[in-house]
Amino acid sequence: MKRFLDEITYDINFLKGHKLQPAWYKVLKVFILLGVIAGFLGFFGWRRALVFVAVFFSLNLIVHLTYRVKTEKFTRNWADFNVVEDAGKNVRPGIGLLYYSWSLANAAAAFALSLLLI
Q1: Which of 85, 114, 74 has the alpha carbon at shortest distance from 99?
Q2: Closest Cα to residue 84, out of 27, 22, 20?
Q3: At 85, phi and psi to the nearest 5?
């Protein structure tokens, strides 16, 4: 259990400290997500909103874990995730198009499933 908590702590620290996205976007995406959830709740009700949230976060967790494993904790190149060494330090230039495409596809899948399942 301690190792599992250590891995979660590692991921949280990485997410808080990474420079893959501008700081303003990290804040803005929280408000975008809350707005989408609130809109979904208003238009479709709490059950469908709950299914949307559960499916969306589950699918994005799979994407996150895939990147985490394939990049060996975000230290190696894989797909659209690139690590560049600059003055002896690993520099990550940014998140690529594949990551954002998967997130949009996950949102579409969560939307469709939330409407079909309930």
Answers
A1: 74
A2: 20
A3: -90, 125
- Spatial CA neighbour of 107 closest among 71, 59, 65: 59
| Residue count (the chain) | 118
Region of poorest pLDDT, from 3-7, 20-24, 38-42, 82-86: 82-86
Could you give the CA distance from residue 46 to residue 48 in angstroms, rounded to a whole number? 6
Under DSSP, is residue 23 helix (H, G, I), strand (E, B) or coil?
Answer: helix
Q: How far apart are CA 23 and CA 32, in angstroms?
A: 14
H-state helical runs in 18-118: 23-44, 46-70, 97-117
Q: How many structural domains are present in the chain?
A: 1
Q: What tokens does 90 get?
A: 């690993």
Please give the residue range of the domain that contains residue 49.
2-117
pLDDT of 101 reads 97
